[in-house]
Amino acid sequence: MTAPAPTDVHPAWLPPEAFRAIGSRHCLVLGDGGLVDTVVTEVERACAEHGGSVRREAEGPPPSLVLALVPAVGDGVPAELVAALAEVDAAGAGPLGPEGYALARHGEVTVLLADQPAGLLYGLFHLTRLGESAFGAPQAARSHRPAMRRRMLDHWDNVDVHPVMGQVERGYAGGSIFWQAGHPRRDRARVRAYARLLAACGINAVAVNNVNVHATEARLLTERLDDVAEIADEFRPYGIRVHLSVTFAAPVVLAGLPTADPLDDAVRAWWAGTTAAVYARIPDFGGYVVKADSEGQPGPFSYGRDHADGANLLAEALAPHGGVVHWRAFVYNHRQDWRDRSTDRARAAFDHFAPLDGRFRDNVIVQVKHGPMDFQTREPVSPVITAMPGTRMAVEFQVTQEYTGQQRHVCYLAPWWSEVLRFGWGDDGHTVAGVAADGGGLVAVSNVGDDPFWTGHPLAQANLYAFGRLAWDPRMRPAELLDEWIELTFHPDTTADPDLLRRTLHEIMDDSWRTYERYTAPLGVGFMVRPGLHYGPDVDGYEYSRWGTYHFADRDGVGVDRSRASGTGFTGQYPRPWSRVYESPETCPDEVLLFFHHVPYEHVLHSGRTVIQHIYDTHFDGVAEVEAARLRWTSLVGLVDAAVHARVTERLDEQLRCAREWRDQINAYFHRKSGVPDAHGRPLH
């Protein structure tokens, strides 16, 4: 049974009103299984709220909504259900699959069919998105299946409070919903409510601890496995499998073995036995997430082995149980000499992993950040995604806004993710979305904490929702996703001015990622943030550091030369046509020019502006857009919940303060470097 929803947390996109269309009708549910029980409980809750009814036996008065597993359709069921089933068969679409469903409207009955219980659950939440439109005119059966088999969130949550990173690393919405000061949180209702939200947008896997695995977190694999099992118990009713981040050094740290060498027989035996114990306790366990030989985390390099050796070790242990290992490709030299311009952090993942293509076991998923650096406001697509056709690959996004305003700024990220997913190469239609769909799916770093609004900034909920929906269907348009989220979360039709509410939210959010880009780091150059915090401007903060994150601004120009002709050769890691497009400043897209090239300040962009004037103009424009968004939000007083309005107002005030700081520091810095005045005579501080 589902736990009651917590009363001290915002309902996000599942308020009771979202279930009115379902809960006001007579419903029939046919089928058995834990997830079917969840569907029944959800419908019962909706009917109790809105006056409808639900039953699980075919006999009875005619229902207006039928949710049925195909194997459960037998004698005595409504004729409309039989007709819908025949229509699905006639359509020749084949099996609906483990998570698919079909929806039809026959006469006065809406019919939802699924082959397996998970499909029925996802179909139920599809009905909440449709609302009353699911119960209108007759509609032919239409099937729905997820594009990605695995749609996953990684929590960077620490069990112990880390002295630098706190309870949640790169978390901007309070503490962890799983852990508190070294112990599990006992708020089961909050975790169950979270699982419900995730299922409603299509998420089916969650890693519950930080990829940087510290001493206490390492023990979740063994003596603290019960803590993980308790979380799995809360996710299971919503079809979500739990994964665990583990340290590659676990045999040494936990068992006292003298080595973690992936080719050592004792090490292999330890992983096999330990993994079997995990599955004995959590039979539907998803698998491991590993960050190895990266930023101080241990890995196979210590033993003269490579990443395929390391990943295959864990894959071998997981294979008998149906588990997978997500092996992160975020590997680079984090002790770089800033004087050495031949070493390029952007190259690192490709250099390490592309030569290993074809050597990974089938249950290894190489998890690649969508850009070659580190979730910057604008990056090109990582060439690793294009380079490993013989390897299962997951593409990693960052829902938590580490470099995009840290959930203090409005920054709707779906337009960016959509661009990445549509990125294509070659003549045979390869896209990022296709690579993810054929391999390991989409993964993202979660932006949720114990804040009453889940994500700190109420409007940041849209990023979590949109990620799940894009993982289900990467063809969806960002504006369409925002419409869904607005309708579910705010129910504009129940307000005094629904058009104003919808229009204002779109005006504030549609272009907010590009607004953020305009007032922060220009033309794809990246970083320019305060070290450690990664919030607010510090143009030279990382410029002379060991992290390999440089902009190389001098008196003559700015940007990193990554060309083959004169730079690091990074452009050569791309297939055609992109290797040619990125190679020359004349063909490189403006938005990533400084990522690929060091150019003079007077270099003329495709827009017709010079680089320096672009920097000045966009920083003034970005601040003006935040000012306009703040003013627009004031018009929604009385149209949105007062607590939501107050929190967003507070965050917009901070966003405006920070945007002005970015504008003034960036413009002043480049004015002093270049000596070029603003063409419009504005003060550059």
TrEMBL record:
InterPro entries: A-glucoronidase_C_sf, GH, Glyco_hydro_67_aGlcAse, Glyco_hydro_67_C, Glyco_hydro_67_cat, Hex-like_dom2. It comes from Verrucosispora sioxanthis. This is Alpha-glucuronidase. Residues 141-454 form the Glycosyl hydrolase family 67 catalytic domain. GO terms for molecular function: alpha-glucuronidase activity; xylan alpha-1,2-glucuronosidase activity. It comes from the Bacteria. Pfam families: Glyco_hydro_67C, Glyco_hydro_67M. Signal peptide: none annotated. GO terms for cellular component: extracellular region. Belongs to the glycosyl hydrolase 67 family. One of its GO terms (biological process) is xylan catabolic process. The active site is at residues 295, 374, 402. Keywords: Carbohydrate metabolism, Glycosidase, Hydrolase, Polysaccharide degradation, Xylan degradation. Residues 455-682 form the Glycosyl hydrolase family 67 C-terminal domain.
